[in-house]
TrEMBL record:
Pfam families: Glyco_trans_1_4, Glyco_transf_4. It comes from Candidatus Nitrosocosmicus oleophilus. Residues 20-129 form the Glycosyltransferase subfamily 4-like N-terminal domain. InterPro entries: Glyco_trans_4-like_N. It comes from the Archaea. This is Glycosyltransferase subfamily 4-like N-terminal domain-containing protein.
Length: 428
């Protein structure tokens, strides 16, 4: 088979199973689906992952050389980077100095000798970037108790602004250096393209492709909700709103502390601990802290909130948990190409989410509801979704086939082939 149909691919992802995390799970599913199609794929990841090559780490300033060395050894046709910036040492407080870079893979993009495919897993408008910065963190945690020096506040803002500029510039360079770029939605493509209206002609010019985050149940046959709930000892006489994943401030689980949960609903949560997170990092909420908050919730006397506390779930257990639920709840504070959303949709669940651009795109397809990030708004959304539940589920069922991994892998194969052919005829 020719390289156009069967390329040799080096897949780059710091995170890879058994390392817990959505990027690793996504990458593993994509790799397995490509291999089933006969594509030769090799994985470069962190030493804790079960890849083929190792050496990547968020704190490794030599990540670029690690990648280039593997390319030199393997001689693949294309290299595909799963770009979640934090997995490559993103500096959220960055000053541009000689020899310094905002991530530790900038040099790789400058020197890579073969076509690069980049999948952007996230992007941020400036206001949301501030929520990731120390400025907003300090404001939210200390503004009511400590006076903040206004000059320090201005300085923090300027650092955040400068860092955001470098972040956007870095993404632009990555997009230009890549033969093809992949995003999970039109909205993310719009953000990464620095506000370009994503018409078909412009998308083609920038080699930007929207390929949905693949997702499908691990269980071969859909599990009845009652049976699925037995696995986790969940009540069968209530509707379940589910939250799962890394318990970080950006996921907005603090909203649960003020949420007046309707009488016929319960909230089920299951959180994972980020392998690369630290207790001192401003965007990390530790599991212990979350447990403490749940125990203190006033409305938790009759177990309106159930914490499974089972950590990162196997694919089989995750499928079972999703089949046990009625809706996925996503009170995010910042935009993300949410794999949790796609996993839920693949299992037939509509969603309720913060009214961020990414989620609004899927609300327009009738797959869920977006609201202001306020407890009363989420409570109202639960009631609205319950009233029109069958219509939402029908829309989700119609959308599900677009997420099947075989379809996602075929779209990737076309992109790989295009990048290889473009290089051969001198288009890149």
């Amino acid at each position: 088979m020719s390289a156009e149909l069967d390329p040799n691919v080096l897949m780059i992802s710091t995170e890879y199973p058994p390392i817990p995390g959505g990027v690793g799970r996504y990458t593993s599913n994509l790799v397995n689906s490509l291999k089933k199609m006969g594509v030769e794929v090799y994985v470069l990841c962190n030493e804790k992952g079960h890849g083929d090559y190792f050496g990547l780490d968020p704190s490794n300033q030599n990540n670029s050389q690690v990648i280039l060395n593997v390319i030199d050894k393997l001689n693949p046709d294309v290299v595909h980077v799963q770009l979640e910036h934090g997995l490559y040492g993103l500096k959220q407080r960055f000053r541009n100095k000689s020899g310094n870079s905002i991530t530790n893979i900038e040099y790789f993009y400058e020197k890579c000798p073969i076509p690069i495919i980049t999948t952007f897993h996230s992007a941020y408008p400036f206001r949301q970037w501030l929520k990731l910065s120390k400025l907003l963190y300090n404001q939210e945690n200390y503004a009511n108790t400590n006076s903040i020096n206004p000059f320090k506040k201005i300085n923090e803002f300027m650092v955040s602004l400068s860092t955001y500029y470098e972040f956007k510039k870095s993404n632009k360079i990555k997009m230009e250096k890549s033969s093809s770029n992949i995003v999970f939605s039109d909205y993310l493509g719009h953000l990464i393209s620095t506000g370009i209206v994503m018409t078909k002609s412009i998308s083609k010019k920038n080699n930007l492709f929207v390929v949905y985050h693949g997702a499908e149940p691990t269980l071969p046959v859909p599990l009845e909700r009652k049976l699925a709930r037995k696995k986790f000892n969940l009540p069968v006489d209530k509707k379940i709103g589910l939250l799962f994943g890394f318990a970080t401030d950006t996921k907005g689980w603090d909203l649960l502390g003020c949420l007046n949960i309707p009488h016929d609903w319960i909230i089920v949560i299951n959180q994972s601990k980020n392998l690369y997170g630290t207790k001192n990092h401003s965007t990390v909420t530790t599991i212990e802290y979350l447990d403490h908050k749940i125990k203190g919730y006033a409305n938790n006397g009759d177990q309106k909130i159930i914490n499974l506390n089972q950590g990162f779930l196997t694919d089989m257990d995750l499928s079972t948990l999703l089949y046990s639920s009625d809706v996925i709840i996503l009170p995010y504070t910042v935009t993300s190409g949410s794999g949790v959303l796609f996993d839920a949709l693949a299992h037939g669940l509509p969603f309720i989410a913060t009214d961020l651009g990414f989620f609004k795109e899927f609300e327009k397809k009738g797959l869920g509801i977006t609201v202001k990030r306020k407890p009363g708004e989420f409570e109202g959304a639960l009631k609205r979704l319950e009233a029109g539940y069958s219509e939402y589920v029908q829309k989700v069922e119609e959308f599900k086939p677009e997420l099947i991994w075989n379809n996602i892998a075929r779209q990737h194969l076309k992109i790989y082939s295009k990048s290889i052919l473009d290089r051969r005829i001198g288009n890149v």
